[in-house]
Hints:
Layout: H1 21-30, E1 45-46, H2 58-65, H3 75-88, E2 92-96, H4 99-110, E3 116-119, H5 124-132, E4 136-139, H6 160-170, E5 178-181, H7 194-206, E6 211-214, H8 218-228, H9 237-246, E7 250-254, E8 265-269, H10 272-285, H11 296-308, H12 312-331, E9 344-348, H13 349-352, H14 362-374, E10 376-377, E11 379-381, H15 383-386, E12 388-389, E13 395-396, E14 402-406, H16 414-429, E15 437-441, E16 452-455
Parallel strand pairs: 1-10, 3-4, 5-6, 6-7
Antiparallel strand pairs: 2-8, 7-8, 9-14, 11-14, 12-13, 15-16
Amino acid sequence: MKTIIEPFKIKSVEPIRFTTKEERKIILQKAGYNPFLIKADDVIIDLLTDSGTSAMSANQWAGIMQGDESYAGSNSFYRFEAAVRKITGMKFIIPTHQGRAAEKILFSVKGGAGKYIPSNTHFDTTRANIEFTGAEAVDLLNEIGKIPEVRANFKGNMDVDQLESFIREKGAENIPLCMITITNNSGGGQPVSMKNIREVKAVCSKYSIPLYIDACRFAENAYFIKLREPGYENKPILEIAQEMFSYADGVTMSAKKDALVNIGGFLAMNDEETAMKSRNLLIVTEGFPTYGGLAGRDLEAIAIGLEEILEEPYLHYRIRSVEYLGEKLLKAGVPIIEPPGGHAIYIDAKRFLPDVPPDQYPGQSIVCSLFLEGGIRSVEIGSVMFGRYDENGKFIPPDMELVRLAIPRRVYTQSHIDYVSEVVIESFKNRHALKGYKIVYEAPMLRHFTVKFEPID
């Protein structure tokens, strides 16, 4: 059949409050033109993030009722640990309240001034946690991944030749670990091939550098490998995931993505010394090693979610529903990163608003337009999120100016997605009336969460 139906039935619903365009003008102005500062009740379709926004299943809600809230040695922890180990094969598994907590612990142990952490592309909290220690986060995305309009199967891949050159230039002793993000969020939700993971591991092994995987969307990445990489078309998703992790020495994960829960994460590794140091930090900052900042019920929900995410009917629906939105936008001429990624559509703001320069934040202009036009909350992934200043105060933009429409898992139906496409297309038709923005307040780190703007007249 051509129609891909949702592989679930809906048991519980949440009402949407509809606003007028005039109301949204006032809401946006009060929020300093920053979608992070808009109340959720004022949003019609919320595509700000796919993190922690999933609808949990009946089995997960049932698991919550069975959560063991013992402070130490909780039964729920051991079920969680078994679920993570089954997929990743890691020896030491440390629960955290979300992915950035795992990053904070890992880089507190491994980071520091004079050190470098290469990746295909670091996302915002990863970069911030690395730089907070004095280390430098380095992106080594393959060149085709930087060209939005060009289609390729694995645009999230790391440039292996660049990685080896970088290691030789900086010295392996100054690179405590290498990371691969799957799928590559900052690069458009694009997948990483098994071949690339294997090749990166070979380089890392050559120089005795541990390889860590940022596994937020590991199941989506595994499904892309099944669809696109020869030799994997008949393999179960679990086996593909297990092979991906077999090349890693450690894992960080925000369970708020591919574990289908609203809170939680973990840090896992095979090195006992790193695990010991990480657990010591966990006790100081998160909690005892068998709960790590989570309630037992949260650990139960993660364990169940890690099983459900591997179901192929769900992954088929998930990838196809995002692709469906991308096809509608491309048909109307809206420039996006091609092909569509696994969890989001990324609008190419450079081609959408070619006359708005990076230091006037074209992505933010589109974000504001989508909210005004239809109450859609999205997020800029460009000069607001990743722009920086050199030592002379000169603004340095990133390679790409993007707007991410992140689709929450099991939340919106096809009619919601059709509405989203209509709003985006309407904004695109009116793009010549859109202006740039200037920053009137920004924090020194992760500024996009709290930054405030004014439109440029």
